[in-house]
C-alpha cells in the first residue's frame, strides 16, 4: 500500500519530508516519550492517560489548546508495520460517531523520510467539517513541522 495522490471526496492528505532516517522518524512517532514532545499543531500540548503501541492498542490523551481548551482524544492502532506504516482510528473516544481512519506512511528517500498522513472520513460532510471548521490540513502540516523540528533536534 502506498500513499498515492488520488483522493476521494472523503479523504484528506498531508505530507512532509523529514530529514532523518526512517527508523528515527518512526520511533519519534510511536514512542510516547517522544510524542508528548511534539504532537499537535503549534501552541498545543498533550497529556497522555494511556498508551499501548500495538495492533489493537489504544492511546488516550488530552490535547490542550493555546486558549486553554482541552480536547479529549482517542486513537486505536489497527495495523503497525515497523518502520513503514501505521493504520489507526481517531476520535474523541471509542464510541465517537465522527471517528475517522488514518494511514501514516514512512517512506525512506535519499533525503530523509517522507511522512504522509492520509485520513478517510465516513462522509464528505465530516471531511469538509474537519478541513473547514477544525483546520485539519493546516493542523496536520503544523504537526509534521513539529515532528521535523523534534527529529532534527534529536539527531544533532
What do these coordinates show?
- This protein is an alpha+beta fold and 156 residues long.
- A hairpin with a 3-residue loop joins strand 4 (70-81) and strand 5.
- Helix 1 crosses helix 4.
- It is 29% helix and 38% strand.
- The mean pLDDT is 94.
- The chain has one domain (13-110, 135-155): START domain (Alpha-D-Glucose-1,6-Bisphosphate, Chain A, domain 4, 2-Layer Sandwich), CATH 3.30.530.
Which residues sit in consecutive blocks of at least 5 with pLDDT less than 50?
none
| Number of helices, counting only DSSP H or I runs of 4 residues or more | 4
SSE order, as H and E? Answer: EHHEEEEEEHH
Q: What is the CA-based Rg, rounded?
A: 15 Å
State the CATH topology. Answer: Alpha-D-Glucose-1,6-Bisphosphate, Chain A, domain 4
Overall shape: globular
Strand order of the largest sheet: 1-7-6-5-4-3-2
Task: Give the CA-CA distance, first to last residue.
Answer: 32 Å
CATH level-four homologous superfamily name: START domain
The amount of beta strand, in percent, is 35-45%
CATH top level assignment: Alpha Beta
> Would you identify the CATH architecture?
2-Layer Sandwich
For the sheet with most strands, the description reads: 7 strands, antiparallel
Assign the structural class, choosing from mainly alpha, mainly beta, alpha/beta, alpha+beta, or little secondary structure.
Answer: alpha+beta
Oligomeric assembly: single chain
Helix content: 25-40%
Amino acid at each position: 500500500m502506498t500513499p498515492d495522490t488520488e483522493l476521494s471526496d472523503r479523504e484528506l492528505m498531508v505530507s512532509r519530508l523529514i530529514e532523518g532516517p526512517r527508523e528515527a522518524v518512526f520511533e519519534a512517532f510511536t514512542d510516547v516519550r517522544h510524542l508528548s514532545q511534539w504532537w499537535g499543531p503549534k501552541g498545543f500540548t498533550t497529556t497522555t492517560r494511556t498508551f499501548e503501541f500495538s495492533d489493537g492498542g489504544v492511546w488516550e490523551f488530552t490535547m490542550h489548546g493555546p486558549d486553554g481548551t482541552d480536547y479529549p482524544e482517542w486513537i486505536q492502532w489497527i495495523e503497525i508495520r515497523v518502520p513503514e506504516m501505521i493504520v489507526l482510528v481517531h476520535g474523541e473516544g471509542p464510541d465517537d460517531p465522527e471517528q475517522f481512519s488514518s494511514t501514516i506512511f514512512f517512506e525512506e528517500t535519499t533525503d530523509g523520510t517522507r511522512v504522509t498522513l492520509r485520513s478517510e472520513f465516513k462522509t464528505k460532510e465530516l471531511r469538509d467539517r474537519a478541513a473547514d471548521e477544525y483546520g485539519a490540513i493546516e493542523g496536520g502540516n503544523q504537526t509534521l513541522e513539529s515532528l521535523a523540528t523534534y527529529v532534527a533536534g534529536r539527531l544533532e
